[in-house]
Amino acid sequence: MIELKELLKTLVSLLNQDGLKSKQAAFNLCYDDLAQAKEMASWDVIARHVNENTSELLTAQIASNMFQRAKAKKKKQTKKRVISVKETKQVSEKVDKDDHNESENTISDGLLEKYMKVCFNKEMIARNAIENNISIDLIQQWGCANFVQLNNAIGNYIRHK
After folding, report:
1. Rounded to whole angstroms, how far apart are CA atoms 62 and 2?
2. Does pLDDT of 130 surpass 90?
3. Confidence (pLDDT) at 102
4. Separation CA 159–CA 96 (nearest Å)
5. Contact 4, 35 (CB under 8 A)
6. Closest CA to 37 of 79, 3, 70
7. Which of 36, 93, 95, 147 is 20 to 30 Å apart from 118, CA to CA?
8. pLDDT tens-digit readout, 26-38
């Protein structure tokens, strides 16, 4: 079983970063890990661990509230994805197969796998890097500690091209 410290590692890392918009953003990004941590420990224990490893002053109630907001946001995003998938299927059925294959941007599985390794196994980030011709070597040179930093670095790179 995964230890509580491991589950909270990403949250602690995000809360210690300067560039993070808010504590809520960190909770949103770490929702799945927090859900597992909640099964193992109380909000008091989780808040104490976060307080010991960051400069934050979280209470159990604050942690619980932020978790509930993250849960609601994830649920809302899931609904949007389901609708998007249904709409996508309807549209793709109307499009001729030849036109669909020509317009679809295909990325070879081998290339995607290589990028996934340096993009913290986040397909969206890997595809973004490939579509913007960002080399694997450049991504490695940036030395990002997590997917949030990498996503920010890619965005900055694209904006300042």
Report:
1. 24
2. yes
3. 42
4. 35
5. no
6. 3
7. 36
8. 899 899 999 999 9
